[in-house]
Design brief:
With about 350 residues, this protein is an alpha/beta fold. Helix content is about 30%, strand content about 20%. It has a 6-stranded mixed β-sheet with strand order 11-12-16-13-14-15, sandwiched between helices. A 3-stranded parallel β-sheet has the order 3-4-5, sandwiched between helices. A 3-stranded antiparallel β-sheet has the order 8-9-10. The protein starts with a helix and ends with a helix.
Length: about 350
């Protein structure tokens, strides 16, 4: 959402957005009430509210990145969500920009009259293994997936090429090849940027200008940027579900810096932390790791089974200090803090207060 908003600011007209991530109707109303009626609105939308927002606002562009389970104590099974997208988008007059690599997104989007398919990638496949069309089995291959019922990956209009040296290129059907260079880290952010650039181009901002604007973004509502926590340089990262943890662990795993993992289970996080067992914490083995947060005991058990040696400290600020000592961390080797929703925001507020 932040990347797309930055791209559309290139038009020189006002852009309204729910920058703090308040992605349900109250947040949408607050964002829309914040500026002139002729502004462009870029809204992050909770997956459950996509049908409501599509029908209420008739958006010019809908960008669909991926669909995975989240907060199962109060959310529906993901194939039900995809089906509701499908029913709502058949009515959409605008353009849908959709990730061709996620079967759930494809099922939800293919009912729309106008779809631009982007090969946006899918690292987390556990929620997409069941065919949303027939209930059969999705078989994945390199740059392809299909089911025996005939439901299969559509031919992308835009490909995303990623080299081993982390160079990302958006390849358009008209022959354009645009490099994707961001200040914020992660392959997932570069792939998101390609979908955002396609959405921006539908709205009148050429993809090359859109990507250039995105490259100037250094943080998103506190995410990815360095903060000082109790005197320790710390990079704050937010992961809310197994798909997000998969991506962030892939981001930090190649490094050697100490890692703090923070888990709460409040209403905003979802009360059920059983998803911890789906996260590949094994990738943190051999690193200095500290478990923290209100459910740090649950997390500690999961880390034990993952073979990850760690310490447990309930207070997040103390956990960061301990991680720094364990890793002899300095400004050039900051502590990586990965927290779920309220754990992340609690620490972000603590850094602002200090």
């Amino acid at each position: 959402t932040r990347l797309l908003a930055a791209a559309l600011e290139e038009k020189g007209s006002p852009v309204l957005t729910n920058a703090t991530g308040s992605n349900m109707p109250a947040g949408h109303v607050a964002a829309l009430a914040g500026g002139p009626g002729d502004a462009t609105a870029v809204l992050e939308v909770d997956e459950g509210y996509v049908p409501t927002i599509v029908r209420a606002l008739d958006p010019a562009v809908v960008v669909l990145l991926n669909l995975s389970r989240d907060q199962l104590d109060r959310s529906n099974e993901v194939r039900m969500v995809a089906t509701r997208w499908r029913h709502a988008l058949v009515e959409a007059a605008g353009t849908v920009v959709a990730n061709a690599d996620d079967p759930l997104v494809v099922f939800g989007a293919q009912s729309a009259a106008s779809v631009v398919w982007v090969a946006g990638g899918i690292r987390w496949r556990s929620d997409a293994s069941g065919c949303p069309a027939c209930g059969g089995r999705i078989r994945f291959a390199e740059r392809a997936w299909s089911c025996d019922c005939g439901f299969a990956r559509p031919t992308p209009d835009v490909e995303v090429d990623e080299d081993p040296d982390a160079t990302t290129t958006a390849v358009f059907a008209d022959g354009r090849r645009l490099g994707v260079v961001l200040s914020i880290p992660g392959s997932f952010n570069r792939r998101n940027a390609v979908l955002a650039a396609v959405g921006a181009e539908v709205l009148g901002v050429p993809a090359d200008r859109a990507l250039a604007a995105m490259g100037r973004i250094e943080g998103v509502a506190g995410r990815f940027s360095l903060h000082t926590v109790g005197g320790v340089a710390t990079r704050l990262l937010l992961a809310k579900n197994p798909a997000g943890w998969e991506e962030l662990l892939s981001l930090v795993a190649p490094g050697t810096s100490p890692v703090v993992v923070a888990i709460n289970a409040r209403i905003a996080d979802g009360r059920d932390p059983s998803w911890l067992w789906d996260v590949p914490f094994e990738r943190l083995a051999g690193r200095p790791v500290v478990a923290t947060g209100e459910r740090s005991a649950d997390l500690s058990v999961r880390l034990d089974y993952a073979g990850v040696k760690h310490e447990r400290v309930a207070d997040p600020v103390r956990a960061v200090a301990l991680a720094s000592r364990l890793g002899n961390s300095g400004d050039l080797d900051p502590v990586e803090f990965i927290g779920n929703y309220t754990a992340f925001h609690d620490l972000l507020r603590a850094t602002a207060a200090s």
